[in-house]
Amino acid sequence: MHAQPSRSPIALWIGPEPTVNRVGDRYFDQLEATGFAHRLDDIDRLASLGAERVRFPVLWERAAPHGGEAFDWRWTDSRLKRLRECGLKPIAGLVHHGSGPSDTSLLDPRFPEKLARYARAVAERYPWIDAWTPINEPLTTARFAGLYGIWHPHGNDERAFLRVLMNELRATVLAMRAVRDIIPHAQLVQTDDLGHVESTPPLRYQADFENARRWLGYDALCGLVDDHHPLRKHLRASGITQAELQAFVDEPCPPDIVGINTYATSERFLDHRLDRYSKELHGGNGQHAYADIEKVRVMGRSIGGFEARLREAWQRYQRPVAITEAHLGCTREEQMRWLLEAWRAAERVAKEGADVRAVTVWSAFGAHSWNCLLTRPGHYESGVWDVRGPDASTTSAEAFEHSVRRRQQPSHEIARATPRETALATLARQLARGEKPNHPVLTGCGWWRRHDRLHHPAHGRVYGRTVKGRPVLIIGATGTLGRACARLCALRGLPYRLLSRDELDIALPASIDAALKRWRPWAVINTAGFVRVDDAEHDPRHWRENAEGPALLAQACATRKVQLLTFSTDLVFDGEQQRPYVESDTPRPLNAYGASKHAAEQRVLEAMPDALVIRTAAFFGPWDRHNFVTASLERLRRGHAWHAADDQVVSPTYVPDLVTASIDLLIDADGGCWHLVNQGAVSWAELARLAARRAKLNVDLVEGVSGATLGQVARRPAYSALSSERALIMPTLDAGLDRYFREVMQGVLEPLEERAEMSVPQARALEDADEALEKKRAA
Asked: Whole-model pTM?
């Protein structure tokens, strides 16, 4: 018998992102935006990870949107009932970055008493809940709502910030008293983003002030803001009364668990040397002007992260601590590395003697619009599950509007998809069971630990870790897609080998076996193939490259248990239908190229059913001059007409979006056929016009013509737009074009056409030079 792994003393907790914040008169509800509000079976998903607790939203704004004490418990009843059935204990959260119902606000003197009445009502209805977070991150919310003016009530000075904070802390004390009247043993799990500030010597005083202020919420609850506290005079000078402060000292409400949240950008650096930074980073405090930047982007040594924050919180309070949010809005491997780093930090600090209780996997179903601080539509960050299914809102803007309209529309009008599990789920289960995480990407270090994290001149000696681990083999060193995969693997800290045909010929079994034996990859990305659609009609080599080669590659990968990603095309379809093709539609290719790609799909999935086969179409991107968009713009800039087919509708695909999504799916171990294109359908002529308008060029120079007049030998479908019945994980075409132009405007479009005939070492050297140039421009 095999010995069972010993369970870690650190517990796994889980939480959906539940913010209901207010901007002006509009509420943005994350539970609506991610669909958690509508899927009862999400409770079963949370329980499947082996978590002990869930930070669960019993939010005041949702139970009584307009105030009063007529609370609607229907949603909460059904969810908490299911939680109990699943054996998953809740930590009840009552306000999460919100300001309460519409009849109050964080500046309302009655806010604490109102929240306490709601807390009592919740405790009376659910007397079995033993852990509570009345207000999530009170100091952080006070900064955003009282100091920066971003969220309601939009204060923007120190007095408003401190008034909001005191109201939140007083509300926490009163809420816990009310709860403990019903549930005497109820625990307070108090959360906040601790952050940390460093500076150049002239700004040390400002850094010291901010580092003292970050503890203020915990200090007040613990009764430590007495006459000797370093901020006591500042509080009094900012309008906080002696009686208010003394009440915390006389009747403290210390957290039973100090919940630590921190993010890659939570740690800051203040620099008086303004000439090092762009003007948008310039600011000040009225006494000195300085730049306030993310420490990770400027400090030679990397951030302290969870380990430093846990250690200092334990040393300061000697009370149990936990990581109550571990989330990173980034690519999949970086999300996994962040979670694993949090877990290992908790274990290390626990071994030093600290009472570390748990690590919380956060944003279980992802989060919308945090990139713009929940003030307007932004982008979606996936989590343990990805909710971008075919029947979900297709854009973050739509999700944002759905969440805002919740108060006017019945919830059943918002359709939601079945969440798709990501590789984070496997990692979370392994951590909960005490198993050693084994995904190959975890041998690498996160971007916040690598040299390339720096965006500004480094402050101090630069420390960084190197990328290591089993590589991804990328086949197709001379092609646009192969080079893009290599570029993005480098950016993501994924070891890779970009191979030419001389190094791996996919149509020769011996060549495949030799390469797999030499490099021992955990995955292979095949971008090689015969791409000249018209030439394929009379060149028999297309069958060898497009059909036979991928089949042999799949057989070898299946034998060695190596994951495989290979690409197909929209030209497997005949264009007879007038709606976008999805994965289950029957291929009927019109030309030899499409036929070879269809044969490859069949043979690959027959040899290796869990291989990842991605159909895509109509590439454009910033890193080569041969794609349709770049070529059309260059001709239009010279004042020449551009002829493009107006009788062929396609789904143009921005190459960086395609590669990013493809690698995420590969890491998630998703298999089968997927359609990945930017969401949208246009003719080639319409695509040229869209690009011309953005470039402010003469749209009239784009002449729509029949494809037959362009010298096309092979038949093309009149309509080959793609969509997906599995998940809509690609951005819109408009978003892709926007990013294309941002990249081009930043000057990353280099003349790469000479690389096609270069050796692999030469091509890699030029890629390294490109990356160095990009870093120089970013700085």
From this structure: 0.91
550-600 pLDDT per residue, tens: 999 999 999 999 999 999 999 999 999 989 999 999 999 999 999 999 999
Gap between the Cα atoms of 369 and 400, Å rounded = 8
Question: Which pairs count as long-range contacts for 280-289, CB under 8 Å and 24+ apart, including other chains?
Answer: 285/206, 288/202, 288/203, 288/206
Quick check: 111 and 101 in contact, CB under 8 A?
Answer: no
Beta-bridged to residue 289, according to DSSP, are 284
At 715, list the tokens.
Answer: 């038949």
Cα–Cα distance, 415 to 155 (Å, whole number): 36
Residue type, 120: R
Q: Helices 480-491 and 655-667 sit at what angle, rounded to 10 degrees?
A: 60
Find the catalytic residue in 593, 654, 719, 740: 593
Helix, strand or coil for residue 194?
Answer: coil
Residues 6+ apart with CB under 8 A from 602: none
Cβ-Cβ contacts under 8 Å for 109 (sequence gap 6 or more):
167
Q: Which of 136, 132, 46, 52 is nearest to 92 (CA)?
A: 132
Alpha helices per DSSP H over 668-759: 684-694, 733-745
Specify burial of residue 133 (Cβ count, 10 A radius: 0-12, 13-18, 19+): buried
- Confidence class of residue 743 from pLDDT cuts 50, 70 and 90? confident
Query: How confident is the model at residue 228, as a pLDDT?
Result: 94
Counting residues of the chain whose pLDDT is more than 90, the rounded percentage is: 84
First to last CA, the chain: 57
Phi, psi of 359 (to 5 degrees): -125, 130
Concerning whether 593 is annotated as a catalytic residue, the answer is yes
Q: How far apart are CA 43 and CA 771, in angstroms?
A: 44
- Distance CA(246)–CA(250), nearest Å, equals 6
C-beta pairs of 229-235 under 8 Å, 24+ apart in sequence: 235/162
Mean pLDDT of the chain: 91
Do 245 and 232 meet the contact criterion of CB atoms below 8 Å apart? yes
CB-CB contact of 84 with 119 (8 Å): no
User: What span, in angstroms and rounded, lies between the C-alpha atoms of 756 and 424?
Assistant: 38
User: Cis omega before residue 509 (within 30°)?
Assistant: no
Beta bridge partners of 510: none
Residue 53 contacts residue 358 (beta carbons within 8 Å) = yes
Quote the distance between the C-alpha of residue 691 and its chain's center: 28
Q: d(Cα 374, Cα 372) in Å, to the nearest integer?
A: 6
Element (H, E) at 705: strand 702-705
Dihedrals φ, ψ of 187, to 5°?
A: -100, 145
For residues 422 and 266, is the Cβ–Cβ distance under 8 A? no
Dist. CA 386–CA 332, nearest whole Å: 11
